[in-house]
From TrEMBL:
Coiled coil: none annotated. This is histidine kinase. The lineage of its organism: Bacteria, Pseudomonadati, Pseudomonadota, Alphaproteobacteria, Rhodospirillales. Residues 324-370 form the PAS domain. PROSITE patterns: HIS_KIN, PAS.
Length: 681
């Protein structure tokens, strides 16, 4: 049986549960995936935040320590200068070198007097040095800050990028005596940044900038050109914290710290998009896995449903087989015919209740009896022969007599067939008790015989009667004629009229008897039926009626081709002659008669019609006109005996057909009749 969803108009509970379970499973899988993706997102962000905070703390500690180291060297140098007073510059330089040694962040140290001129430096002084010192002095003094961190500049000694870090010096009176500048190595800070960066996987942007946003050190270099617009650099920004900055196009997560006394800000930023890249590809992978899982679940459900559907179909199949079996059993139990199964040895293995009843056995007692026990025409030795016959023919049909338990013989018709089961021959006989049938057949045959005899007798009687009746009639006729001839002169006109009436009556009587004779002769000619060409019949009729047709100026239209029918040529000629003749006889006084014969073959039956344009017939007479001696008009208007159509009816019925009329008074009539086609030669 073909699997089809449509075969499930009402899904069973199991089908519904499987679908529900499958849907639930899919929801769980997709839900869990969604949750996991959300959780990973959160943990990615949280982890990043934590890492950024830790990094920021580490860096701020490291850089803070470095700067405060630089600061303390600068402070120390300021002190040194105040205690050592006006010592030769070479000596001061030595002191400065001693101080700077051990603080790797310091690239140079420079003492500038109140006028901005260099007093002493770690490096030997040059004119460029002078200008540099003056510009630093100007910038620090201008801002009037005790500590000042400048922007990145090129060191005058060799162009190395440095960050000037300066403190103001005051004399005993509290006036500005000059500044001490430490050139912090940008590269030193960069190395710290790189060291930190090398330990992280994600792309970080580390920035050390001044509070005003001027970048001092940044890794990767040039990642940001200006920090002043960034959220963490806004004037209202907190000192330390972590922000999600969505202002920038990429979106950043930034941990920032403030190195308060120096007015510096350190930020560790990560690009949110970069950060989420890993999460995104993970999420995609998870989604794909979930999709695959959902597909697997769907496939599983489909497979289970298919299995269930097949089971259902199988169960339905079994139910239908069982129903068929029960129906077959019922028809065996309730059937009127006997059904007897035997094995190849001729032993009865099954007999239905009808068989037990008809053969007079108690229910079930025919089992294991053999066929010769119930059929005397098959002695035990003949069983093999019957089986061979069956093997050759497949089925056999014959009449025989069976013996009941009481020894009575009953006439039966047997239809027996061979069936192979378990590699052995079995026979199944359907047996019909035809005793009653035979009896009624005999009665029917007897009755038919008697009826035929009485019919023949009747026809003989009609023939003889009409024949014999004509004799005295002829006598009456001739004597009336004689009377008229011999005594006509002596008779008064009245007597002559009476004699004329008597003669006419006798003539009419003769015509009636002749018609009756003709009526009784239909079907009694003894001629066998044969294939008759209707075309030939109609030509014959046309010739017979030629004169009448001509006189009436009538038009007779016949079909171009006509089939052959099964019948009697003469009777068919009389039938068509009568109908065409009537068409002529009952013509309309206003028009010339037109008679058309048509033929239609349909469903193995031939229907002929004869249509005229005559006076027509009122519908209430459609049946009556086919009865014998029934006329619708007086003899004075239309001559006739009223037997023509009765003869037509008898002829058509003898040919196994029927005849009828349809007509409209004053317009014309159409007579129809059916015939049987001649069997193919
Ligand atoms: P008849 O012609 O000898 O009277 P029929 O048996 O042939 O007898 O016809 C019976 C009656 O049916 C007729 O008397 C006539 O009234 C009517 N009849 C038969 N054929 C036609 C016809 N073609 N047109 C009109 N009336 C008809």
């Amino acid at each position: 049986m073909r699997f089809s969803w449509i075969s499930w108009p009402h899904p069973s509970t199991s089908v519904r549960s499987v679908i529900a379970l499958g849907a639930l499973l899919m929801v769980v899988v997709l839900g869990m995936t969604g949750y996991e993706i959300w959780r990973q997102y959160n943990s990615t962000i949280t982890l990043a935040e934590r890492n950024l905070n830790v990094l920021a703390d580490v860096l701020v500690g490291e850089i803070g320590r470095t700067i405060s180291g630089v600061d303390s060297v600068v402070e120390q140098s300021v002190l040194d200068l105040s205690t050592e007073g006006n010592r030769p510059p070479e000596q001061i330089r030595r002191t400065l070198r001693d101080r700077a040694t051990g603080v790797p962040a310091i690239f140079g140290l420079l003492l500038i007097d109140a006028q901005g001129l260099p007093i002493a430096s770690l490096h030997s002084l040059s004119p460029r040095h002078h200008a540099f010192a003056q510009s630093i002095r100007a910038s620090v003094a201008g801002q009037n800050l005790p500590i000042h961190v400048g922007t990145v500049t090129a060191a005058p000694f060799d162009g190395t990028p440095i960050i000037p870090f300066s403190r103001l010096r005051h004399d005993a009176a509290g006036n500005i005596a000059g500044i001490t500048v430490a050139a912090m190595s940008v590269q030193y800070f960069q190395e710290i940044f790189l060291q930190v960066k090398s330990k992280t996987v994600t792309t970080l942007t580390l920035t050390l900038a001044r509070q005003d946003g001027a970048i001092l050190v940044q890794t990767p270099e040039g990642a940001t050109t200006k920090m002043s617009g960034m959220t963490e650099f806004r004037p209202d920004s907190r000192d330390n914290g972590l922000i999600h900055d969505d202002d920038t196009s990429a979106g950043r997560i930034v941990a920032f710290r403030t190195l308060r006394p120096y007015g510096l800000k350190l930020s560790v930023a990560v690009n949110a998009a970069d950060l989420l890249n890993l999460w995104r590809s993970n999420a995609l992978r998870l989604l794909l896995a979930a999709l695959v899982a959902a597909l697997v679940v769907a496939a599983l459900i489909w497979a289970i449903l298919r299995r269930l559907a097949l089971d259902e179909a199988q169960r339905a199949n079994l139910r239908s087989i069982d129903n068929q079996r029960r129906m077959a059993q019922f028809s065996l139990d309730a059937g009127a015919d006997m059904v007897v199964w035997t094995n190849d040895k001729g032993s009865i293995i099954y007999a239905n209740p009808a068989a037990h009843q008809a053969l007079g056995y108690a229910p079930g007692t025919l089992f294991n009896r053999s066929i010769p026990d119930i059929d005397p025409s098959v002695p035990p030795a003949a069983w093999e022969g019957r089986l061979d016959d069956l093997r050759r023919a497949g089925t056999l049909r014959f009449e025989t007599s069976l013996r009941t338990l009481s020894g009575k013989l009953i006439s039966v018709e047997v239809s027996i067939a061979l069936l192979q089961a378990d590699g052995r021959d079995h026979t199944c006989a359907v047996i019909r008790d035809i005793g009653a049938h035979k009896q009624s057949e005999a009665i029917l045959a007897e009755r038919t015989k008697r009826l035929e005899a009485s019919n023949a007798e009747l026809e003989q009687f009609a023939y003889v009667a009409s024949h014999d009746l004509r004799e005295p009639l002829r006598m009456v006729n001739s004597f009336v004629a004689l009377l008229a001839r011999r005594f006509g002169d002596q008779m008064d006109p009245e007597a002559r009229e009476y004699v004329e009436f008597a003669r006419e009556g006798a003539l009419r009587m003769d015509r009636l008897i002749l018609d009756l004779l003709e009526y009784s002769r239909v079907g009694s000619t003894g001629r066998p039926m044969a294939a008759v060409d209707l075309g030939t019949v109609l030509n014959d009729v046309r010739q017979t009626l030629a004169l009448t047709l001509n006189e009436a100026g009538a038009e007779l239209i016949l079909p171009a081709s006509l089939p052959k029918v099964w019948g009697d040529f003469d009777e068919l000629a009389r039938l068509l002659g009568n109908l065409i003749g009537n068409g002529l006889k009952y013509r309309h006084s206003d028009r010339l008669p037109r008679i058309e014969v048509e033929c239609l073959t349909q469903d193995g039956q031939i229907t002929l019609s004869v249509r005229d344009n005559g006076i027509g017939i009122a519908p209430q007479y459609f049946d009556r006109i086919f009865r014998i001696f029934q006329r619708l008009h007086g003899r004075d208007r239309y001559d006739g005996t009223g037997i023509g159509l009765a003869i037509c009816k008898k002829i058509v019925e003898r040919h196994g057909g029927r005849i009828w009329v349809s007509s409209t008074p004053d317009q014309g009539s159409t007579f129809f009749f059916t015939l049987k086609p001649a069997p193919a030669a």
